[in-house]
Amino acid sequence: MKVTALLGERFKNAPSDCTIESHKLMVRGGYIKNMASGIYSLYAPAKRIAKKIENIIREEMDRIDAQEVMFPVVMPASLWEESGRYTSIGSEMARFTDRGGNRLVLGMTHEEAAVHLARNTASSYTQYPFTIYQIQTKFRDEPRARGGLIRVREFTMKDAYSFHTSQEDLEKTYARFYEAYERIYRRVGAKNVVAVKSDSGMMGGSISHEFMLLTDIGEDTLAICPECGYSANMEVASCEIDNEAGEVEELKKVSTPGVKTIEALKEFFGIDEKKFAKAVVYQRNKDDSYLIVFIRGDLEVNETKLRNYLGEEVHPAAVITEESGIVAGFIGPIGLDGGLTAVFDKSLEGINSLVCGANEQDFHYTGMNVERDVGKVDYVDVAKVFEGAVCPVCGKPVITVKRGIEIGNIFQLGTKYTKAMNMTYLDRDGEAKNPIMGCYGIGVGRLMASVCEESCDKYGPIWPMSIAPWQVEICNLRSTDEAVSRVADGLYETLQNDGVEVLYDDRDIRPGSMFADADLFGIPVRVVVSPKNCDAGVVEVSTRDKSIKTEFAIDGAAEEIRALVAKLLEEYKG
RNA sequence: CGGGAUGUGGCGCAGUUGGUAGCGCGCGACGUUUGGGACGUCGAUGCCGCAGGUUCAAGUCCUGUCAUCCCGACCA
Known about the structure:
- 26% of the residues lie in helices and 28% in strands.
- It is built from 15 helices and 31 strands.
- The protein folds into 3 domains: 232 residues, Bira Bifunctional Protein, Domain 2 (BirA Bifunctional Protein, domain 2), CATH 3.30.930; 129 residues, Alpha-Beta Complex (YbaK protein); 101 residues, Anticodon-binding domain (Rossmann fold, 3-Layer(aba) Sandwich).
- The two termini are 27 Å apart.
- Strand 1 and strand 2 form a beta hairpin.
- The structure holds one RNA strand of 76 nucleotides.
């Protein structure tokens, strides 16, 4: 490809809208163009990168015996009504009607389509297991797109669905996907990727992992143990608590006029915040009724864990009404209004002497022991993990909290969809059963942006050879000079004939501009052809990551360059 | 959906107490240049987001609306 024929321009400045590095560079470098919020067109360089990522994914999917299929983007609402998600999913799913008044949806994920495709065909246990996948456009009407390609509304995704006759079999495939994903990330050049245990959210099912690329701009928070490798999304990370029982004390009611916050209580009693039983008030989404979480004063409530425990949606209480029976600022577990649900975090378990509210204006209790003064309660883990928390696996207090971008996920779905959509097969014993499903996704555009985010400098992206839009860029520093152009043109032609992907900057511009653009193209191997070099009978060859800078004699340069490309490609081989 | 901000040429921006729009980059032509975003001369590009209103006069003031971005909520 000659730059003179390439559509797209490169900018000195990024639009002021761009805040994160990959977004800036991909706009500045002429990779993407925004059309609407979270909706982008890709220019040729970005399209080429996406295609390479897709092909690596294809190779790895095919390798684990997944077969590529294609589902429709537009599906009838009725199919989604079968699974129940037509109503359970909110406005993230785009819905519309056709000219006949039929309700349709835009595909945001394809479990329903996968079941639809397979359910009448895979009617015998002998036809299991099997895995299907597609690489296709999805539309999700995100409430808030952000960060260029990091979080968009329309995007290309590889989504795979596996079907099994037993949990063990699902787990086998799940493990193969896990390994395939690790290979995919290595091959596309994503470096800091960890798999974390995650919340299954609306997908349903039990076990799931998210593959996270660690970066400060990540939207997810992760708890990671550097000692034993335990890692989990903050949403589900368990929190081990070192509880010190302390001295047994008598329950005493103490006047605490106007002392409402943990801060103020700390000051008032002059004791550590770990000695308080903090009350956090939530409301159920369905009827706004209240529930109260009691947790140790130094900890925060993890709302996702709370939701998962309750099995329903809740939100932090907006206003606490008079008639609720809640005395804001003085809430405690003793003598709490019987109509209120209380949840006890396990951080309170076994502590002998706690300070808590007395459910009476301006009074607190001291010396409270839950078992003794409230009775037997179920302790649950709803605390948010914090830096330095105790690892639930190895028991060392070394948990670190990091940010990550989700660049893939794998779910064990169970029979949620096959049951709801009445997909059955006849088992060996002649009994009709619902197949067990797994699903597995990778966002292509997000992966591209993530690699850019992690592999760049202030001048532009540094694309790994495996996904670079072109493998070699030739910079003809003096295209008006016949001798120089003869060398550059010849090299371009020879390399292309040898199957090397070449971007040829044949423009008549000053070297400074050409180099600045080359940095934005981020192509791994750069070949500079200039009058100076030609006089010396050489071309100058360097890598974008600055690890190599050398000269090759003009005669034989093509072969040397081809070998260099092959060598660099080797690093990312499957 | 809450909070904050911004809409002026392709990009970055300026535009005073209201007086009819400018700078830098980029773009075109010519010339001089040529190893990290050159210089000179000439030139093109604006429904000042949109719709109302106030005014002799609105980029500027008022009202509404749309769009985009950031923080949060949400998120397969």
